[in-house]
Predict the structure of SGNH/GDSL hydrolase family protein.
Amino acid sequence: MVFFKKAAFIILFMSLAGMQSGSQITGKVVCFGDSITNGAEVNGQSWIQYLSQKHPDIDFVEAGQNGRKTADKQDIIPVLQAHSNADHFLIFLGVNDLKDGTPQMVEQCVKNMRWMIRKVQEANPTTKITILAPSDINLETMAPVNVKKKYNENTKRSLVQLRDQYRKLADDESVQFWSLLDAVSPQNYVDGLHPDTTGQKQIAEAVWKGLTQLYR
């Protein structure tokens, strides 16, 4: 009799846990970023579109803009005004700040990110905020136009530093942190900078994994 009671309790607990992990990822997820978020080089089919197609019950908002840097932090204001009721706010920025990257550039990215985090908190203190460390670059397949823009070895080195500094910032500000630095396989870049369709799907998978872990 005791055995059956314990078994029934375990089954009930597992059922409730499963319902909770699957049902709580709801509402609006605002994705604020640059050309990767905007779907550059893949006809607008970014990781957000893949998530929207796979999880239509969730309102994924694409708020990407080509060329956006963390230095363009004021861009977040109209997005916050339009989506003040967001349940989640993902900020995926940094690579465009790091052309021929330096430690000083990384430091400025962190300052800008902190400013944006606090603006989101002011707009809606209940919004769950996540910093996304940018995906890597592939120097071997870097297109000439991006080489001229100085996406180079210094950029690649700075992206690693930025990941580490973003993680620390997330701890300091009590927000979430997910690294996308290794999310995209090296072969899945169109021009060394922007993920191709497979790379975008890899980002979508990494972001969904992060979202589900929030409710475990």
In short: The longest strand covers residues 28-33. Confidence is low (pLDDT under 50) at residues 2-23. The chain is about 50% helix and 10% strand. The chain has one domain: 26-213.
